[in-house]
Specification:
The chain is an alpha+beta fold. Helices cover about 50% and strands about 20% of the residues. α1 packs parallel to α6 and α2 crosses α3. About 35% of the residues are buried.
């Protein structure tokens, strides 16, 4: 295919379900621009599957595969929750997660390019591979919610899998944005400070004490948004760091279908 790569053709085919030949011709006509190629296929009325490429993928599922101290997580996007719960969709997603874990990201992308058109045609929706992550740590705990919409991977520097998994379950429920209070971003703090200032002004607090009040608010904000300093959901008398038994969280990944 002079000028048009096989991967470009595969990508367009995955989005539209149109034949390889039609995809190749459309890409050649568009100079390799995938969006223009889709427009060309629409004008030609090549296939009803082309319409799928324009439809939003607001649903999907997360798929987790773990072996020892290594875990792989992928998101597979689709249009409706009905398809997200379909056994064929679930089997397909789990297979991709296994490929990512065992063979790596290049193999995942190659397999997705080759196999997505068939599942798109079978289930009748636009389906695409979303985020893909591989996490490794000395001790790894993972959790995926029963609806497959929230998944968490926690890596510890020591300890046991059960402890790491408990921390992952906590994170799934409480959605900490950072690992530690120190990692809360300056951008997040500055955004909150503007809100605090407005609140203090509305409350009529003297401006000379704002800094002292905001320092306390910042400390609380950092603790509430960091995994290790959050109140432990299974035992409110403790914080997550108390449950870790001296272990440090070295990896934290939380992904949600939103």
């Amino acid at each position: 295919m002079p000028g048009i790569s096989a991967s470009a053709v595969s990508s367009l085919r995955a989005r539209t379900g149109v034949s390889i030949l039609q995809c190749k011709k459309a890409l050649e006509e568009s100079g390799g621009d995938e969006e223009k190629a889709i427009e060309i296929l629409r004008r030609l009325g090549a296939a009803q599957a082309v319409k799928k490429a324009a439809r939003e993928q607001k649903e999907g599922s997360l798929f987790l595969s773990q072996k020892g101290n290594k875990a792989a997580l992928i998101m597979l996007n689709c249009e409706t929750d009905f398809v997200a719960r379909n056994p064929d969709f679930q089997k397909f997603g789990k297979g991709l997660a296994d490929i990512l874990l065992n063979e790596g990201e290049p193999a995942l992308k190659k397999n997705a390019e080759e196999s997505l058109p068939a599942i798109v045609q079978k289930l009748g929706e636009n389906i695409s591979l979303g985020a893909a992550h591989v996490i490794e740590a000395p001790v790894l705990g993972s959790y995926i919610h029963t609806n497959s919409k929230i998944a968490v991977i926690i890596g510890l520097d020591k300890g046991d899998i059960e402890t790491a998994r408990d921390a992952a379950m906590h994170a799934a429920a409480m959605n900490p944005l950072f690992r530690t209070p120190e990692q809360v971003s300056a951008e997040a703090i500055e955004k909150e400070k503007e809100i605090w200032k407005s609140q203090l002004k509305a409350e009529g607090k003297p401006e000379q004490i704002w800094d002292k009040i905001m320092a306390g608010k910042e400390k609380k904000f950092r603790e509430e948004n960091a995994l290790i300093s959050q109140v432990y959901v299974k035992d409110p008398s403790k914080k997550v760091k108390d449950r870790l038994g001296g272990a440090e969280v070295v990896e934290y990944l939380r992904v949600a279908v939103e």
